[in-house]
Amino acid sequence: MFNDIGPLELVTLVVLAVLIFGPEKLPKMIQDVTRTIRKIRDFSESAKQDIRQELGPEFKDFEFEDLNPKTFIRKQLDNDELGIKEIRNGFDLKKEVAEITDAVNGQEAEASTGATAGSVGGSGGTVDLTKKPQTSRQVERPPFDMDAT
Where does the sequence pass through the membrane (predicted)? Predict the structure, then answer.
């Protein structure tokens, strides 16, 4: 319950409790708080048991922690009835991106070394299809028309 409270914070809480409630009332307050926490836990457990009884015998091993989405997904991945691990292993995005990058880099290397795989023979010369054609004049873009969109 108090997993994230350090020793210094705990000492600070004890000192504050002694200052606020006083050394005479502090034991009574601790008993009241522990009694209240115990009642809340008992109420919670009885509610869980009532829900399990209402659900029937097929849900006897049902845990309320399974309703947490992270726990549910983790449990389904461990169960693997649907073949999720197989799908997950079959789809490796990093590997696919690396293959595409290698393919693109390979084409650039071929184009820079003068390979004729991407060139077409025409009237007296070769044209490299991997490069953009050079034009003598710049093509102007039409103005953006806000009403047309």
Answer: 6-22
